[in-house]
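Suppose a colleague, Dr. K., hands you the sequence of a protein chain of 412 amino acids and asks what its three-dimensional shape might be. Before reaching for any lab equipment, you can write down a predicted structure in token form. Begin with the sequence itself:
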Amino acid sequence: MQAVVYALSFLIQILAYIAAGYHFVVSLFAWFPRKEKELLTDKKHSFALVVAAHDEQCVIGNMVDSLNALNYDKELYDIYVIADNCTDKTAEIAREKGAIALERFHKTKRGKGYAMDWAFQQIFEGEREYDAICIFDADNIAHSEFLNEINKRLCQGYDAVQGYIETKNPYDTWITASYAITFSCMNKLYQTARHNVGLPNQLNGTGFALRTNIIKENGWGATCLAEDMEFTMKLLLNNVQVGWAEKAIVYDEKPLTLSQSWKQRTRWTQGHADVASRFIPKLAKKMFKEGKIGCFDCIVYLVQPLLMMVLAVTLVMGMIQGIYPETKIWWMPVDIVSPIIWNVFYFAQLCYIPAVLWLEKKLNIKTVIYYIPYLIFTYTWMPIAFIGVAKKNKKEWFHTQHTRTIGIEEVE
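The predicted structure, expressed as tokens, is then:
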């Protein structure tokens, strides 16, 4: 039995190291911009801007104000607010600001995925037809050039486009600062890198656009706890690749406390694990049948919670075997591989990420002060990975309370 565990630990770690190495190599392409596609048309597309909201009276007004202030022809877009199971004045405030409020009440089908599925049908049955739909969260603030940048990508032929998610409240607490650092790295080292190398980007829950015909042809149907990830995989299986609009900026509010963050990230990981269990076999089949490298890239992305679990177990087993050298249950090649892996890990945390922040002009005194707490924040992903994977079949949706009433003039 001990030999079996030892052999499995060897295999699992080797696969984890390969996946981590793959992510690192791809991230290097973030620094080599690709030649942009030529515009296929100069059309100004029409948009339905859809804001998902549940009891968001504190922030919905500022969000609608930012959409009203977009530097885009006002005749070419309408604002819809989905007041989903709201018990406050979300719908009333949205209407006062000029948005179309769609009120939905359902006792069992709760959550953003179900709300969007319902709202799309309401919009499609309306009198006006739109070229594309943009999705936002109620706590967001949209940059004034958001639609112009999305429109540019649509004119280049993309059917789905993800915008740049910036943090609205980066220095409120050490938690929001950690989110800000995390998303800055994800935007550059994941999204930009994949755009540059021609791999599919990921929808990130807010600040993205889909051509209307794509939703009609494929249906939405993404109702799990990570509906954005679920729909990304659905698009890829239907040969629709998500594009990246780095200058289409959306400012997103982050949780203030570790408790709020823990619940939110656990929900994300539950959805992540759920999507992985359902889509990895389909992606693998398409990869081997059609030779789609994008499918391989998404498989590596979907196994991230498992990689975090392997990293956690390896760390714990390394400590145990360091204290009790006679324990030989877990493969720990201390002479060659492990020092290299951990040195690369620490290099990434202590050198590579600060370099990214510096090059992105986001390394300042406050970021430096919050960087050590951020390192602690990264380790909290380890227990969250175990909890999320264990609860992947539980669909209970948790609402993150938003209270930061920040206007577009403050973030711009």
